[in-house]
């Protein structure tokens, strides 16, 4: 009993400032909710200000009223059904509070940081896309070595034909002209590939400079909205650089050139002085065509390997609000989310504390008897009630004593009543025995009339 009274005294003392503490938490949540709503509203002006204030005030009142109900009713519930019902209602209310307030509080706490995180993630995406585009372009430049090797092989063959080592006819005949034709095509292709080296390097350098500027915008001080605008401009420039790098890749050009090397062959007229010489030239030309096919297939395979490389991902910067950024990157801002939710749901801990305390009080009282639980004030109240009952009984007895008595003659005459058929049979009255105790005339007996 002493423990139960001590707990009750503690609860009575805590009740003196619990509403004030709950009001402070509600107001704090309303302030952060106002900041979150202000970041969502695109318009500025009196109407937007009033809308944000009205929403934040509604949130503060809802939180205060909700937790006031729960703090008073849930700990007082003794039956399991009522407690389960209130638990469900409390859970639904907590979800509603998180939906209407907590995420806005998180936006106010970490909104700018979340937007900066979005900018940093976008920079990483652009950097990967730039590096991929540059890698593909540089890989395509490596095809120049394959083209150079093919050109050199055709030039060597033409030199051998000029000395008569291939067809047996020295000079610049039909076979020589065919070999020079293909070596010149490959030389032109090699020149085109080499001309792309400097533009690729310049584009990649420009892209890195844009990335550096975008990182500077992330790290700069000032409103994140202003920096986001400049960031968007730089992202457009960088997207153009990435598209340029994709266009500078010579892999498609080499692939088409390999097809043309095989298909576009202009056969020269055989100019041998005799039929045997012309037959030798024809056989040599067929061998050269087979060599051209092999070289074309080799170049085509090399170009296709470059074309099969994964292309750079399509990256586009999209402006995002603080609330959306907090939700998208919630995993990076767990402390902010925890603080935003705790400021709204902290009274739930108080509810559990009160429920446990009230249960302990009821448990202590349940183990005691009525005599053990009776206090001095209860005893005094019981004694006062007993005195009132005794006084009422004494007044009733005095009223019976002082009531008027009927005359003796009338009292001796019996009243004749009709017999009750349902009444039990009563034996006939016998005359009193003078010797029996209590008979009329016996010593010490009172008259029956007096009785």
User: Alpha-carbon distance between the termini?
Assistant: 55 Å
> What does the oligomeric state look like here?
single chain
The Rg value, from CA coordinates, equals 54 Å
Order of helices and strands: HHHHHHHHHHHHHHHH
Class derived from helix and strand content: mainly alpha
Ranges with pLDDT <50 over ≥5 residues?
A: 409-451
Largest sheet: none
Strand content is under 5%
Mean pLDDT: 77
Note the overall shape. Answer: rod-shaped
β-strand number: 0
Count of all domains: 2
Give the helix tally.
16
What is the percent of helical residues? over 70%
Question: How would you concisely characterize the structure shown here?
Answer:
This protein is mostly helical.
Report on the structure:
Helix content is 75%, strand content 0%. With 451 residues, it is mainly α. It has 2 domains: 2-112 and 333-372, no CATH class; 117-321, no CATH class. The protein is rod-shaped and about 180 Å long. Residues 409-451 have low confidence and may be disordered.
Task: Kindly list the characteristics that best describe this protein.
0% strand, transmembrane, transmembrane helix, DUF4407 domain-containing protein, 2 domains, disordered C terminus, mainly alpha, single chain, membrane, 451 residues
């Amino acid at each position: 009993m002493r423990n139960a009274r001590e707990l009750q005294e503690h609860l009575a003392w805590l009740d003196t400032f619990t509403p004030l503490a709950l009001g402070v938490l509600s107001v704090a949540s309303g302030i952060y909710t106002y900041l979150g709503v202000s970041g969502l509203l695109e318009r500025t002006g009196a109407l937007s200000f009033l809308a944000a204030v009205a929403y934040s005030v509604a949130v503060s009142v809802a939180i205060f009223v909700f937790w006031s109900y729960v703090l008073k009713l849930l700990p007082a519930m003794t039956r399991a059904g009522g407690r389960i019902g209130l638990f469900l209602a409390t859970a639904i209310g907590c979800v509603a509070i998180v939906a209407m307030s907590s995420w806005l509080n998180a936006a106010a706490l970490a909104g700018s940081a979340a937007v900066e995180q979005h900018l940093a993630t976008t920079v990483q995406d652009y950097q990967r896309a730039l590096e991929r585009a540059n890698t593909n372009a540089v890989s395509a430049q490596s095809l120049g070595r394959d083209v150079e090797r093919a050109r050199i092989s055709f030039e060597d063959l033409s030199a051998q034909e000029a000395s008569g080592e291939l067809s047996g006819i020295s000079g610049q005949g039909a076979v020589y002209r065919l070999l020079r034709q293909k070596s010149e095509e490959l030389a032109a292709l090699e020149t085109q590939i080499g001309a792309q080296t400097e533009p690729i390097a310049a584009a990649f350098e420009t892209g890195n400079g844009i990335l550096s500027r975008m990182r500077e915008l992330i790290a700069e001080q000032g409103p994140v909205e202003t920096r986001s605008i400049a960031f968007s401009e730089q992202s457009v420039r960088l997207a153009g650089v990435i598209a340029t790098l994709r266009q500078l890749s010579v892999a498609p050009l080499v692939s088409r050139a390999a097809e043309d090397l095989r298909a576009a062959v202009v056969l020269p007229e055989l100019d041998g002085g005799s039929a045997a010489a012309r037959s030798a030239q024809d056989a040599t030309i067929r061998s050269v065509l087979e060599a051209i096919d092999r070289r074309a297939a080799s170049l085509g395979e090399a170009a296709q390997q470059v074309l099969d490389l994964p292309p750079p991902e399509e990256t586009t910067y999209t402006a995002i609000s603080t609330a959306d950024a907090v939700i998208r990157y919630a995993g990076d801002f767990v402390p902010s989310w925890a603080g935003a939710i705790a400021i709204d749901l902290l009274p739930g801990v108080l509810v559990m504390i009160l429920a446990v305390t009230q249960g302990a009080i009821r448990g202590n009282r349940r183990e005691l008897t009525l005599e053990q639980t009776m206090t001095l004030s209860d005893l005094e109240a019981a004694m006062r009630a007993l005195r009132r009952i005794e006084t009422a009984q004494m007044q009733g007895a005095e009223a019976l004593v002082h009531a008027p008595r009927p005359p003796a003659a009338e009292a001796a005459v019996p009243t004749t009543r009709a017999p009750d058929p349902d009444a039990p049979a009563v034996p006939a009255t016998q005359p009193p025995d003078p010797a029996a105790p209590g008979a009329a005339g016996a010593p010490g007996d009172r008259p029956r009339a007096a009785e």
